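User: I would dearly like some help making sense of a protein record. This is the protein in question:
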Amino acid sequence: MFRSHPHLNKIFGTLLHDPNLLHLNRRSVSAAFAVGLFMAFVPVPFQMILAAAAAILIRCNLPIAVGLVWVSNPFTMPPMFYFCYLVGTWILGTPEQEFAFELSIDWLMTGLGAIWEPFLLGCTIVGLSSAIVGYFGIRLLWRLHVLSHLRERKQRKTLNKQL
């Protein structure tokens, strides 16, 4: 279990023992959606580690936050990050530059240098936007579910009284 891991205990201490890290409640799940969706747009390797650390610090549901990072996977990453780049160029008012992505150190040193500003700005804006929509969307869905459950319960009570 992660709570007894010696290295994690050195870094996070008593934060690892917060019950919200594994519980399913409105606050914990909505915050986990915000963390996971934001981290999905952070263009670095090991996004899951960043999501786990943020979930521990924010005290939200750890498995949900880490799992949502997989919104960006090898299949979805190219269109997601290209969209982020387009958002960044639109906000900065800079023209799009044509580039051919290569997974190499050489391309990262030369090709990324020309597009990094709109790319990172777009990733930040889209990440924050998706985190906000995810947070409030889950809170709304949770609330609607609770209201639906209360209505059904009230209907069952009314039906039982009539019988």
About this structure: The radius of gyration is 21 Å. The chain has a mean pLDDT of 85. Residues 103 and 111 are 11 Å apart (CA to CA).
